[in-house]
Amino acid sequence: MQDNTKKVHEVKAKRTAKNSVFIDLFRDKKNLLELYKTLHPEDNTATEDSLTDVTIENVLTDNLYNDLGFIVGDRLMILVEAQSTWTMNILVRVLLYLAQSYHEYFQRTNQNCYKSKKVKMPRPEIYVIFTGNRGRKPDKICLSEEFFGGADVDIEVKARVIYESNTDDIINQYIVFCKVFNEQTRKCGMTKKAVTETIRICKDSDVLREYLSNKEKEVVTIMMRLFDEEEILKSYIRSERYEAAQEAAQEATRRATQETTQRVAKKTAITMIKKGRLSVDEIPTFFPELTPDDIEDIKKEVVQLV
């Protein structure tokens, strides 16, 4: 019994909760090079040695998402994984991630952006890998369009979005892997069976076969650790429901207050008309909160009084 407990402890200690299959897959330079060539098939000079992993650790950590950064030649490649929940806030994450990446780049290359000499910067390329259903989502997203109505603002971030396709490249295989996993969790729940079935199905379908065959135990460990994210997601949903309930309550209060104000205004207007202090035509001037329908009701009541 003690040996089993020890083994379980050792398995859990291999990975922290922030690790994921996405990061683990592309930590392998062979897979990273394949990813790069998927995005830039025209580049025949890139090698594993020419790739520099600059993924930021412990910065902007969000257990529901994962980020990958690497430099090749004069390019700074940033890939952000967005799982089944789509949000344009990913552009804000990219903005912060990009700033941190350049900050670390200047430190690594001993450049000082506070001096007069112009620093050298790799050209950024930003991609969002979306593992959910595409629907009508765009091929490109833009910070100024989404957050500032397309205005000419002094800061900009653009990203290309990658969805599932009919290709067999490593990016698409990863997206298929995620979708198989989602389907298995719907069938089996958040269980080890869902993980092992996902791996089996993908290997049989030649999806990430080499990676899953070589690192099956590690992948199981990583994915089991990621189940902790379910509680984070539940917390997020509870928060969203609470905010929706708060907004509904505020709207109900606003409507009730408005109705009360209108009732008092109508009553006051009728009283003033009775006493000859106000004409019907003057109602909009002195009681702007009353609607045309309210004024019609007042006219009818005044006519009845007459």
Q: Care to give the gist of this entry?
A:
The chain has 306 residues and is α/β, with parallel strands linked by helices.
Outline the structure in words.
By secondary structure, the protein is of the alpha/beta class. The protein has two domains: about 10-230, no CATH class; about 270-305. The protein has helices at about 1-15, 20-25, 30-40, 90-110, 145-150, 170-190, 190-205, 210-215, 215-225, 230-275, 285, 290-305, and strands at about 50-55, 65-70, 75-80, 125-130, 140, 160. The longest helix is centred in the C-terminal third of the chain and has 46 residues, at about 230-275. The radius of gyration is 30 Å and the shape is elongated. The N and C termini lie far apart (about 95 Å). The relative contact order is 0.09. The model is unreliable at about 1-20 and about 60-65 (pLDDT under 50).
